[in-house]
């Protein structure tokens, strides 16, 4: 969704397991599609980043005053966590193009950190249909620029994998 120069996206992350079945994903999508952009904007600004206090089935532990539409939809589905993210420029919209997320336990019990991983970081195809933005056409890049970009993406993926291994094995 878009509002002025900001772009917003709602993600569904499996709290347990590695996938969300298609029927559940369609149910979540239909509920989120009914929301006004203001409700998603509110969630992306009011949530404390991607840090959540969750029960063992992925339900939010929050006082009523902090619950919003995204939290309410999220808590309808066991073992699924919904969260939103935003970018403040149409040029950065590709950062919202994510099919995968990582959820990790923080230092305190029931405290979780959820991080969406942009498709470009892990070399997965983008979802151009959902994330199409009308930007002025850029000049084509040279082969040297493409090689540098490819090398940086590879280094970024290696660093991400290294951090994940360190986080889950040595922390």
Q: What's the helix and strand layout?
A:
Layout: E1 2-3, E2 6-14, H1 22-33, H2 37-46, E3 51-53, H3 69-76, E4 80-87, E5 98-105, E6 111-118, H4 119-122, H5 143-170
Antiparallel strand pairs: 1-2, 2-4, 3-6, 5-6
Question: Features of this protein?
Answer:
171 residues, alpha+beta, three-stranded antiparallel beta sheet, 5 helices, 6 strands, 22% strand
Regions with pLDDT < 50 over 5+ consecutive residues? 132-137
Strand residues, percent: 15-25%
Helix content: 25-40%
**Quaternary structure:** single chain
Structure characterization notes:
With 171 residues, the protein is an alpha+beta fold. It is 36% helix and 22% strand. The protein has helices at 22-33, 37-46, 69-76, 119-122, 143-170, and strands at residues 2-3, 6-14, 51-53, 80-87, 98-105, 111-118. A 3-stranded antiparallel sheet has the order 1-2-4. Strand 5 (98-105) and strand 6 (111-118) form a beta hairpin. Residues 132-137 have low confidence and may be disordered.
Short structural description:
The chain has helices spanning 22-33, 37-46, 69-76, 119-122, 143-170; strands spanning 2-3, 6-14, 51-53, 80-87, 98-105, 111-118.
